[in-house]
Amino acid sequence: MKPPLIYHLKTHFLLLLMLVCATRVGFAAGSDLLRLEIESLNGGNHASSASSVRNIDDLAAVYGDYHYRSLWFADGPLASLRADLQREILRSADHGLALHRYHYDELLAGSLPETQLDVLYTDAFLSQVRDRYRGAVTQVDDQWYLERESIDARGLLHRLIEQGKGLSDLLHALWPQAPEYWALVTKRSELSTAADTTSRAVDGGPALKPGASGPRVAQLQERLLGPGEHSGTFDEQLRRAVIRFQQGAGLEADGIVGKATLQVLNATRFSWIERLDANLERWRWLPRDTPSTYIRVNIAAFQMRVIENNAEALSMDIIVGRPYRETPIFTEDMQYLVFFPYWNVTYSIAVKDKLPLLRQDPAPLAAAGYQARLAGSQEFVPVTEVDWQSVGPGQFSLRQLPGDHNALGKVKFMLPNQHSVYLHDTPDKALFRKSERTFSSGCIRLAEPRKLIEWVLHHDKSNYLTEVDRLFESGETTTAYLKDPIPVYLVYFTAFAVGDEVVFRRDVYGRDQRIIDQLREGGKSRV
Q: Engineered SS bond to 136: which of 31, 67, 131, 234, CB 3.0-4.6 Å?
């Protein structure tokens, strides 16, 4: 006899009820485990991985918003994207980001409990978002005054959860999109797949010059001319090879292997990769919305470029700050030009540089047009009229009259800023013959200021454009205000694109290594 229909209905109902209860128990257990995992993070007791979890506050907020459900496993909204995230983490190594920062080995192995892995996947995603968009290191360059942009990493994660797809496209869009950035990425890829060099480094020691001989010269010949039997004598062939190398590296092409040339010469492909990594990181610190027309000063390259409508309109050599008076990194708008300017000497230069000279003999500075104003006075007088033995720091100010000896030359381009740094002419034209030009007190000296004057006034449609000849030769102090201020970016790149090539410059301020150390902190990057 078949059971009545009501029996079947009761049976199916009981089975369905048992299934729902079991599901709820499982869901609750999973939620509890994730909640406990997050609580342990907040308590500093996380032991699920040797890698450090970097986004504890965000993790607590995200999992709290989703009631501590799994995001990356079971029926979680991101379960199908685990392999995509692993691939994107691996790709980020091509940009100089170390895999250990994103728990790559743990995620790839998958040997930890799913609850812990879920947290690591989320932490890795949040870190990838921030590091791609605004850089990975904590301490930026000394003298870096550009504010790094922020990004709502948690908001992007919520968007990804809602969409359930598009992880790779989302993360790829966070890299800097400038062609110059991708030129460095391409160069890094080329170096990372190149064969190791087998030639040995040149031992340290005194500068090697034509006519020198010995084992170090033989090492130099092998380094530049290739393996084989070498004379060990610094001959004309070797001198020409040294000059070619120096020219390509942006060094003083004097045919002498001194400290700077030796440093660049001995670089291996891995040190070049590290240099690229430091510069890729700097790109990630820069503002994303760069205008189509602006002026860029690359301090490390000793070069200024005018970018007009996203194309180079003008470039010229520059002189930058000495290593003990480094030119800072910042951006401001050029607002006006001053022809035949006074030089109002900054306090530090007046006290550190000029005061000892004034106490020794003020006559040479007086002949160069320097005047002084003592505290409490409104009048500038020739420096020879002051008893400098009785004047101390903070009790005077200095200025230099316009003229042939003026340190600013015939024109200065003003971008008002807290550093008192601007672009200007210089009477010391001979210094531009040097390849490495760190001779200023922080300001930017221009090799061809007349060309920049003409571009600026033409771009501004200024009425002064027809008067450039008169203004440049009159000797009168004249201020030309711009109707539309021009953004000026002072940057520091030791590796950068020139056309289709990537070139390297010596790190004259010694800033690269600090970035490299932070990128590698806690582990090694895969190259």
A: 131
Select which of 67, 424, 458, 459 is catalytic.
Answer: 424
pLDDT in tens, the chain (527 residues): 444 444 343 434 333 333 333 333 344 456 888 898 888 887 665 544 444 899 999 999 999 999 999 999 999 999 999 999 999 999 999 999 999 999 999 999 999 999 999 999 999 999 999 999 999 999 888 899 999 999 999 999 999 999 999 999 999 999 999 999 999 999 999 998 876 655 678 999 999 999 999 999 999 988 888 767 788 999 998 999 899 888 878 888 899 999 999 988 888 777 889 999 999 999 999 999 899 999 999 999 999 999 999 999 999 999 999 999 999 999 999 999 999 999 999 999 999 999 999 999 999 999 999 999 999 999 999 999 999 999 999 999 999 999 989 999 999 999 999 999 999 999 999 999 988 899 999 999 999 999 999 999 999 999 999 999 999 888 999 999 999 999 999 999 999 998 888 988 889 999 999 999 999 885 444 44
Q: Token digits for 502?
A: 């990537």
Question: Does the annotation count 424 as an active-site position?
Answer: yes
Report the distance separating Cα 50 and Cα 258, nearest Å: 45
525 three-class SS: coil
Is residue 21 part of the annotated active site? The answer reads no
Residues in Cβ contact with 370 at an 8 Å cutoff, skipping those fewer than 6 apart? 345, 354, 362, 382, 383, 398, 399, 400, 401
Instruction: Tell the residue number behind the tokens 């000394």, with chain if given.
Output: 142
Provide the token pair at 255.
């045919």
One-letter amino acid of 452: L
Both tokens of residue 103? 């728990």
Helix (H, G, I), strand (E, B) or coil at 27: helix
- The phi and psi torsions of 320 (rounded to 5 degrees) equal -120, -175
The whole-angstrom distance between residue 389's C-alpha and the CA centroid of its chain comes to 45
Angle (CA) 391 392 397, round 5°:
80
Catalytic residue among 67, 95, 443, 458: 443
Block residue for tokens 């870096």: 144
CA distance 68 to 59: 10
Other C-beta atoms lying within 10 Å of the C-beta of residue 509: 20
DSSP string, 308-364: ETTEEEEEEEEEEE-TTSPPPBEEEEEEEEEES--EE--HHHIIIIIHHHHHH-SHH
What distances in angstroms separate CA 96 from CA 73, 148, 280, 347, 390, one per listed residue?
Answer: 29, 18, 7, 41, 57
C-alpha–C-alpha distance, residues 45 and 58, integer Å? 17
410, burial (CB in 10 Å: exposed 0-12, middle 13-18, buried 19+): buried
Q: Please, what are the domains in the chain?
A: 5-175 (no CATH), 289-504 (2.40.440.10)
